[in-house]
Amino acid sequence: MKSITFYLDFISPYAYLAFEHLPQALEGLSYQVEYRPVLFAGLLKHHGQLGPAEIAGKREWTYRQVLWQAHAHGIPMQMPAAHPFNPLGLLRLALACGPNRFVCETLFRHVWRGGADAADAGRLQSLQQELAPARDPGSEDVKNELKQATQDAIARGLFGVPTFAVDDKLFWGFDALPMLRAYLQGDDWFAANWDAAVQAAAAPLKPARG
């Protein structure tokens, strides 16, 4: 049985789609999943990047495309009242509860179903009462755990969410689920091509001329 670490942030619509579709995408396979909340903004800051919702044009395309993907895969989805939003309360609540599938499902659906304000203080308080975390989400212990999880993810080579880590391999994005399934099934392609595919990426960049 393979162990999958699913790195996620509830702010990411692609992480929501991947979370909802994962059981269907890997149906029939033997695996276990560890859900690992991380701060997507921390990954972006480390790599000096902007999020999709921070880039004009890409923001609009992202929202249209994720809603289309949800429609195409039969996943209920509505945009929250405001996006992007501050996900720290949700991430810390997940860690305080222990981020199993039930907890993550509750938090993802809080954001991506119903069209309400995901960061509303009253809604977050209701969520905390519903989930009854074993630890205080606002404690320094939980805050430090989230920081450490994000740093560990960066050290492992993550640059975005959702990312699925299996063995020494990282699979990024909702659209990577078929590739993840193939790896778990033992597809020979990975032995022949996984490392060879990045040889060109290791070559020095040549300046464009024109």
Gist?
By secondary structure, the protein is of the alpha+beta class. The chain has 10 helices and 4 strands; from the N terminus they run E-H-E-H-H-H-H-H-H-E-E-H-H-H.
The largest sheet is: 4 strands, mixed
Gap between N and C termini: 53 Å
Order of helices and strands: EHEHHHHHHEEHHH
Task: Return the CATH topology.
Answer: Glutaredoxin
Count of beta strands? 4
Strand order of the largest sheet: 2-1-3-4
Compute the number of helices.
10
Helix content: 40-55%
CATH class: Alpha Beta
Tally of distinct domains: 1
Kindly describe this structure:
50% of the residues lie in helices and 10% in strands. The protein is α+β, with helices and mostly antiparallel strands and 210 residues long. It has one domain (2-202): Glutaredoxin (3-Layer(aba) Sandwich). Strands 2-1-3-4 form a four-stranded mixed beta sheet, sandwiched between helices. The longest helix has 17 residues, at 140-156. The chain starts with a strand and ends in an 8-residue tail after the last helix.
